[in-house]
Amino acid sequence: MRAPAENRSVEKYCRYHRDHGHDTEECRQLKNQIEDLIRKGHLRKYVDRDAPQGRREQRREEAPRQEEQQQQQQPRGVIHTISGGVASGGDDSNTRKAYGRQSLAVQQVPHSKTLRTGGDEEVISFSEADYEGVRLPHDDPVVVTLLVELFTMKRILIDNGSSADILYKHAFDQLRISADQLKPVKTPLVGFAGETIHPLGSINLSVVAGTAPRQTQVEMTFLIVDTPSPYNAIIGRPGLNLLEAIVSTRHLLMKFPTRFGVGEVRGDQEVARRCYKTTITDKGKGKVLTIENVELRGDLEPERPQPVEDVLQVPIEEGNDEKVLQVGSQLGEAEKEELITFLRDNKDVFAWSAEEVPGISPDVMVHKLSVDPARPPIRQKKRNFAPERQQAIAEEVSKLLQAGFI
To answer: Which residues are 233's β-sheet partners?
Structure first.
């Protein structure tokens, strides 16, 4: 921790921190940075091989002990990551299979793009000075502003967990590019919860990152998605690899190599928090459907099925209009006469009242209650009904008595 400004010695100045309080030779953070660079092999020509080893020998003595501890701590299992989208695997099954087989072969492939400055390879690192303007502590995402097709596009989320570069339709419409230029995409996007979204298409767009002269320009393939979002675009792993960018969420900073040194794009912490708040708020809201010109109606009766043809009322007995049957009106005369004759010859099978319904012979079917004869019968408690219900019950019981059912 650094001492307050009023307690720092004005006589001492650190060139690394560009502040008073201690000398450059006493700066611990600078020593740690130099040791890290030495371990990575960047300062080999400045290392004195004949100098006492000091802490280096101490680390060598501690190394065997650390290796023993690492050997004892065996992993309990393997948790694989989830990926999806087009990414480098292509948009069809054959190219994705070929892309997966590449991981089985070890090849030495030179970098297609090597940027050097002054004859030395450029090193990308982050220091205390990169915390400038960042309010700590925080867990904010990196939301930046880039130049897309010569348009200054804000609210771009940097997400190295995304396997695709996404451009939302509301931002694509403002680029004044015809939708006819979109290429079809067959592979859907799979979200965290497993939901799938089918892109409208893909398009290659020019993206410029950084400020002159430390700028870099690449051509990214964006998937156009028509879904609500507080962001205009998402730069995933494909775009970050094209930029050769290193992202530090702690510093809210993205750095990348250019021909004139290391370029950088700083995230906007205030915009990131606004977008996060909008995302959380919109998730809890449902879609509202606007209904206009509502026609108020009463209770609708259920529609009954209608016959496909009219029917004719045929008395089953001559002169008795109470006992009638119905036959189709579109039958031929011969078929109609034959059907009516058949029905009248078998009129005894029709029942016109409850008294005419015969009981089923016990030889055919018998219904028995599983009652233990050793148990005494229990009389149910008398139930009281409303007067109108008592009248309805009495009418039904009288019908059963008249029919001889009870």
So the answer is: 156, 167
Give dist(CA 85, CA 223) in Å, integer: 9
Q: What is the value of pTM for the model shown?
A: 0.48
Distance CA(56)–CA(49), nearest Å, equals 12
Are residues 272 and 191 part of one domain?
yes
The token pair at 2 is 């650094």
**159 part of a folded domain:** yes
How confident is the model over 158-185, as pLDDT tens digits?
A: 998 888 999 999 999 999 899 899 999 8
CB–CB of 35/48 below 8 Å?
no
Are 208 and 277 within one domain? yes
Query: For residue 230, what are its two tokens?
Result: 């507080």
Q: What are phi and psi of 70, to 5 degrees?
A: -65, -35
Query: Do 163 and 215 fall within a single domain?
Result: yes
What CA–CA distance (Å, rounded) separates 335 from 296? 49
Q: Can you say whether the dihedral through the CA atoms of 119, 124, 129, 130 is positive or negative?
A: positive
Both 254 and 329 in a single domain?
Answer: no
List the Cα angle 262/266/269 in 5-degree steps.
Answer: 165
